[in-house]
Structure formats: structure tokens, C-alpha cells
Write a structure and sequence with these properties.
This protein is of the alpha/beta class. The chain has twelve helices and twelve strands. One of its GO terms (molecular function) is RNA binding.
């Protein structure tokens, strides 16, 4: 079976040093590897894209050879990995914590180029539902919106312009495994709009104010009208601080805003994406909200 019963204990070893370096984009690109932290993300990677996973590291209950797994969760993941032919390494809890404080006893190393290739293929669906995000810089936000798009049944996520690296460990952790469920593609602005035109997808720009030429339609009104929602669509969200530029709003087919019924000034990106994407997903499955 593909398991090394010798427990890795030295936090200063060459192997552990290289694992720690995967937090850096430069080292990820150089090594062609990336890190997947935590039980949920690891489980989804092993379930949906097992050939992307190269090695699994799990916490052992002690440092003796043949030490038991630290708990039932990591034991289950080790069994899943071995069933897929993934090599399993036992490490001490101190090694796990040295690599990542958020790993909860387990992390995996993935093949960067293979995963990137898998993520970059847009599905040839007749009426694609795409979630797009422009200049998203915060890793937690990027992971959260991927998770929201996955929950809403989107066919793909597109990061437009200068966005955070989706292989940043914080992004992957925030997706809780959704990164391995659907395509996640990077495009510049022109390629995004050209792709939407080629797919005959209406671009719905999510923006509070819109422009004088493109005032926003409220989300409930957009759902009632139904015209834009019946076909292919791409919902474009803006930067966390600045929203969408006027030049981008001018290229959209419609601008849509989420109404605020209480005293809050606005919603953050993660909440806005969840509300709008789930609303559009539900409205496409029933005649009326």
C-alpha cells in the first residue's frame, strides 16, 4: 500500500521546508505544486480530482514507527487516498502546524499544472450560468465566492483582470473544496466579454449605482422581467473596494443591484455574490419567486 509508516518529525527537514514554501506563489510556480489544507478541501480533491493529488500528509498519534493516525477523520482520508493510489505520509502534529496552522491534521500536495488545466476548460453547455469577478484581491473573498457559485449551480467561475491567485492556500481553504467541483478560469476584460458574446451570454453587472446611461435594475425586478434570465448569463461582480469601473458597466447588458431593506449601507462581496447568484439560481427553477 502507498504509505510510509515512518513518521516525519523534523520541522527543519528539506521536505518540510519545501512544503512550507508552497505558501508562496513564486515557489508554487517553480515547483509545479500547490497545497490543499484541511479535511473538507482534501476530501473533495480526493473525491472529484484524485489524480491531481500527489501526496497526502496526515497527523500521527506520536512519533514512533507505525504510530496510529491521530483521529478517525485523518484515518478515513488516508484510506481514501490509498484507494486512489496517492502516497500517504505520517507526520507529527508539530510538523502539520509548522506547514499550516489551519490544516486540522491533514494537508495534501497537488499537481499545479494538471489542476490548472482541469479548471481552465469551460463547459459547452447550451445556456451557461457564469459567475465572474473583477479584480478580486482578498484570498478569503475569492474562496467564498467560488463556494457560493458552486452552491448556486454555476457552470464556471471567471476571475477577470488582476485577481488573487486561486492556488493561494487561503483561497483553497475558503472554498472548502468547491475549487475541485467546477471550472475556475482567468481572463482579461476583453477576453471575458468576447467569451460571453461567443456563448450568447447576457452580462449582468452587479453594481449599486450603475451609471447615468445604465441605471441599475433591482434584483426582484430583474427576476420578474425574466428576459435576461431565460438564456445564458454571466453575472459580473466588482472589486471589493471600488466595485466595477464605468467602462465595464457600459459593456454590460444590464446593471442589477440588491435592495437594502434595513439600515446597512451595503453588502460585502461575499454576501452580495451569495444573494444574487442563489436568487438567480432559484428563479430559474421556479416560475415565480
Amino acid at each position: 500500500m502507498p504509505i510510509d509508516n515512518h513518521v516525519i518529525t523534523n520541522t527543519k527537514s528539506e521536505r518540510v521546508r519545501r512544503l512550507v514554501e508552497l505558501a508562496s506563489r513564486k515557489h508554487r510556480e517553480h515547483s509545479g505544486r500547490f497545497i490543499i489544507e484541511g479535511p473538507q478541501a482534501v476530501r473533495e480533491a480526493l473525491t472529484w480530482q484524485p489524480d491531481v493529488v500527489r501526496d497526502l500528509y496526515v497527523a500521527a498519534d506520536g512519533d514512533a514507527t507505525d504510530a496510529a493516525f491521530a483521529n478517525a477523520t485523518v484515518a478515513s482520508l488516508a484510506g481514501l487516498a490509498m484507494g486512489e493510489g496517492v502516497y500517504v505520509h505520517k507526520v507529527t502534529r508539530s510538523v502539520v502546524d509548522h506547514v499550516s496552522r489551519d490544516a486540522q491534521g491533514v494537508f495534501a500536495v497537488g499537481d499545479l499544472e494538471l489542476c490548472r488545466e482541469r479548471l481552465s476548460a469551460l463547459p459547452e453547455t447550451p445556456r451557461p450560468f457564469i459567475a465572474a469577478f473583477w479584480q478580486v484581491r482578498d484570498p478569503g473573498n475569492a474562496g467564498t465566492v467560488i463556494r457560493s457559485a458552486d452552491a448556486a449551480g454555476c457552470d464556471a467561475v471567471v476571475f477577470v483582470g488582476d485577481c488573487v491567485d486561486v492556488f493561494n492556500p487561503k483561497v483553497i481553504r475558503a472554498t472548502t473544496g468547491s475549487l475541485f467541483h467546477l471550472p475556475v478560469v482567468r481572463m482579461d476584460e476583453d477576453m471575458f466579454f468576447a467569451t460571453c458574446a461567443a456563448r450568447k451570454a447576457s452580462v449582468v453587472a452587479a453594481d449599486v449605482y450603475g451609471t447615468e446611461q445604465m441605471p441599475p435594475v433591482s434584483l426582484p425586478d430583474l427576476v420578474r422581467q425574466g428576459d435576461v434570465l431565460d438564456g445564458a448569463k454571466a453575472v459580473l461582480f466588482g472589486n471589493e473596494a471600488r466595485g466595477l469601473d464605468d467602462a465595464l458597466l457600459a459593456r454590460a447588458d444590464v446593471v442589477c443591484s440588491i435592495p437594502i431593506y434595513g439600515k446597512a449601507e451595503s453588502l460585502n462581496l461575499g454576501t452580495s455574490a451569495a444573494v444574487m447568484l442563489m436568487t438567480l439560481a432559484m428563479s430559474s427553477r421556479i416560475e415565480r419567486m
